[in-house]
Specification:
Elements lengths: L13 E13 L4 E13 L3 E5 L6 H9 L6 E6 L3 E4 L11 H12 L3 H14 L15 H13 L5 E5 L7 H18 L2 E6 L2 H7 L2 E6 L4 E7 L11 H4 L2 H16 L9 E2 L4
Helix pairs in contact: 2-3, 2-4, 3-4, 6-8
């Protein structure tokens, strides 16, 4: 049975717990198993990354945690408020930047007189001060994704689910946002479950990386990431260290070999 138990050894309170979760699509006569028998525990404040090939169920697993998918078997326990950031910003084009964030604040029940100040604060946090009155179409792709992150943060989530949020961005914008999201999560203690195809992004962001295999989707390997995160070894500086290069290579080899083999130094989850 695939299992990922590192977080259960952590003394921090678990905020996400999946027990033998299976998700199926299709009809009763022709069901398709998207993920099978997944065990996953994520502790408070962890930054856990799901990585694997297309079709391995990473997004399905994330959507299941978010409550967007029904499980065919098993249980899902999410003990904190959840915010979601998708691959595309999914902003309302008829609203201003501030209006998009204010919409989330309104759903959260924040009184109207308080919303402008909260919008300004959130835009400051994501590096877009003074843009509340601009239209969405006036922003670059990277700026729009920052607004999407601010909108997710407006709900004051303790758990942030991120589905390849930087995949469509240019390299420099992607690096900048990677650093900002890691810093925001560390500063706030937010628990993050993050989906990516990239071994480099997984090692850069994660405190723990879970490798998935397809047909059906399942967790088959785990890589703890213990790297210095403080300046100057944060973001771009971290990428240049031998430790980062070694972990990235180890994860890349694991992803290439899954499920037939797992490279040395990576904990393998049993495969049924």
């Amino acid at each position: 049975m695939p299992r990922s138990d590192t977080a259960t050894e952590d003394r921090r309170q678990p905020v996400i717990a999946l027990d033998a979760v299976t998700v199926r699509y299709g009809t009763k006569r022709a069901p398709v198993t998207a993920v099978r028998d997944v065990q996953l525990t994520v502790a408070e404040g962890e930054f856990v990354v799901l990585v694997g090939p297309s079709g391995c169920g990473k997004t399905t697993l994330l959507r299941t945690v978010a409550g967007f998918e029904r499980v065919a078997a098993g249980t899902v326990d999410v003990r904190e408020r959840v915010g979601v950031v998708f691959q595309q910003p999914r902003l309302f084009p008829w609203r201003t930047v501030g209006g998009n964030i204010a919409f989330a604040l309104a759903r959260r029940g924040v009184p109207r007189p308080e919303r402008a100040a909260r919008v300004a604060e959130l835009l400051e946090r994501v590096g877009l001060p003074g843009t509340a009155g601009r239209r969405v179409w006036e922003l670059s792709g990277g700026q729009q994704q920052r607004v999407a992150i601010a909108r997710a943060l407006a709900t004051e989530p303790r758990v942030l689910l991120m589905d390849e949020p930087f995949a469509a961005l240019d390299a420099l914008t992607r690096e900048r946002l990677q650093e900002e999201v890691r810093a925001l999560a560390a500063a706030s203690g937010t628990t993050v479950l993050f989906v990516t195809h990239s071994a480099e992004e997984a090692v850069l962001l994660g405190s723990r990386v879970l490798v998935m295999a397809a047909e059906p989707g399942r967790i088959v390997a785990e890589l703890p990431v213990d790297l210095p995160r403080e300046p100057p070894l944060a973001g771009h500086g971290l990428r240049g260290t031998p430790e980062f290069a070694a972990l990235r290579q180890r994860l890349t080899e694991t992803m290439r070999g899954v499920p037939e083999e797992v490279s040395e130094g990576v904990e393998a989850a049993p495969v049924p």
